[in-house]
């Protein structure tokens, strides 16, 4: 029982770390897309569409 509990805790911990990296990567991708949209909007505002 003790070994099973330890394995379960280690599995949850490793999944938690993976999820954090995935969310961080998705956040960076969204930030990059937002910056591109912002630059395009600025160009259109300056009549360079």
UniProtKB/TrEMBL annotation:
Protein family: Belongs to the EcnA/EcnB lipoprotein family.
Signal sequence range: 1-19
GO biological process, one term: response to toxic substance
Keyword annotations: Cell membrane, Lipoprotein, Membrane, Palmitate, Signal
GO CC annotation: membrane
Name of the protein: Entericidin
Database matches in InterPro entries: Entericidin (IPR012556)
Pfam families for the chain: Entericidin
């Amino acid at each position: 029982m003790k070994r099973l509990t330890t394995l379960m805790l280690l599995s949850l911990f490793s999944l938690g770390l993976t999820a954090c990296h995935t969310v961080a990567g998705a956040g960076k991708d969204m930030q990059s897309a937002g910056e591109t949209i912002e630059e395009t909007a600025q160009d259109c505002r300056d009549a360079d569409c």
